[in-house]
Amino acid sequence: MEAPLQSQTAQQLRAEGRAKDLLLLLGHGGVEVSEADRERIVGWGDPDVLGLWFRKALTATSTAEIFASDGEAGPDVG
Q: Is the pTM of this model over 0.70?
């Protein structure tokens, strides 16, 4: 019975780490992060989604690009 708890705890820890990495990357890249976006990132519990956002953040110029579904927003969207 401990495995699900350990798995849930491990997933939570991975999500927290990915959220911190994502915020660090955004700050380093000069992307402005609003308090609402910061709360969204920190509060997101799915490490896979956070990983996707991280990969998008490598080239993003705004948080809107990170949160957008593929094809929904790009560099030309203002």
A: yes
Helix ranges restricted to H, the chain: 2-28, 35-43, 47-57, 63-67
Q: Which amino acid does the sequence have at 73?
A: A
Find where tokens 């849930």 sit. 8
pLDDT digits (tens, 9 = 90+) for 17-36: 999 999 999 999 999 999 99
Count of alpha carbons within 13 angstroms of residue 49, beta-carbon side: 12
Residue type at 56 in one-letter notation? K
DSSP type of residue 69: P
Residue 61 carries which DSSP code? Answer: S
